[in-house]
Structure formats: C-alpha cells, structure tokens
Amino acid sequence: MLEFTELENGKLRITCKKGYKRELRQYHKQHGEINTFLEYTEHYWANGWGVFPDADVLYQMTNAPVISKDATSEDDGSNTLNGPAWWYPNYMITDFIQEILDHGFVDFEFWENMNNANFKNPYMEHENTINRSYLTDKGVKINSV
Q: What is the Cα–Cα distance from 105 to 103, expressed in whole angstroms?
C-alpha cells in the first residue's frame, strides 16, 4: 500500500506503508510500474483522488504520471480536477516505484492548484472554450482551446 503526504514545500511524497515493501517489490517485479501504481493507490483513487498513470489521459503533452487531490470523471469522458495536482517529471529516466523501493520515498512535483479544471479531448467537438494547462519542462503553459 502506498501513502501520500503533502509536504510544506508543495511536493507530494509517496511512501510504502510499513510492512508492505516486500509485497510491493514482488508485485512491481511481476506487473511493472504502472500496474503497481494503480493497484497500490486504489484506496486513493476510489475515494476521490485522481491517480493518472499517464497525463495523456488528461490530454497533456507528456506521459508523466499525475496525481490530483480531487478528481471526477465526467459523463462526456473528460476529467475535472480540483485542488492541488502533482506530476513526476523524471518518468522517462527513473521508475518511481523502484525509487520508493530503493530510497523509501519518491516526491512528485507540484503542478498546479486546480479550480474546477476540465480536461477534454481537444479533438472532440464542444461548444465552450476551455482553458488547458500543459506541463512542460519549463513549467506550466496555459492555452485556450
């Protein structure tokens, strides 16, 4: 079981609950980073948090994993995020589950404090203009679509 802790510096620290490290290691070895991430964070995403193993599902220009403190999947297939959201920018360099196993924790970087931000497929027809924020290596870029 993975646990989330919001740090004073804005980051989100992810740790393995005491007594679960051996199980986490075995599951990770058999199922990989993304499946382990989803399996061991179910208690969060089943209770209102958004746990996105790939920001592409939020139509972002990155495949980095994203965590949101409050997320809703809408009937139209979009996702609405409220409150703080974090991402893991080193997703192409390191396996963040392995980081937890090796170092005891991994920190996700603060992305943005969301205020009813709705992320729709930009190729879907829609009537309203929506604001989209894109994660880049230089920070957050806001575009209207």
A: 6
Q: How far apart are CA 131 and CA 82, in angstroms?
A: 14
Which of 110, 119, 128, 53 has the alpha carbon at shortest distance from 81?
119
Please give the chain's pLDDT, 145 residues, in tens: 899 999 999 999 999 999 999 999 999 999 999 899 989 999 988 888 888 877 766 767 677 888 999 888 888 878 888 889 899 999 889 999 999 999 999 999 998 888 777 877 655 554 444 444 445 455 544 444 4
Q: 10 Å Cβ neighbour count for 20?
A: 15
Domain ranges of the chain: 2-144
Q: What is the 8-class DSSP label of residue 124?
A: S
What is the Cα–Cα distance from 50 to 79, expressed in whole angstroms? 9
Strands (E), the chain: 2-6, 12-16, 50-52, 66-73, 79-87, 105-119, 131-136, 139-144
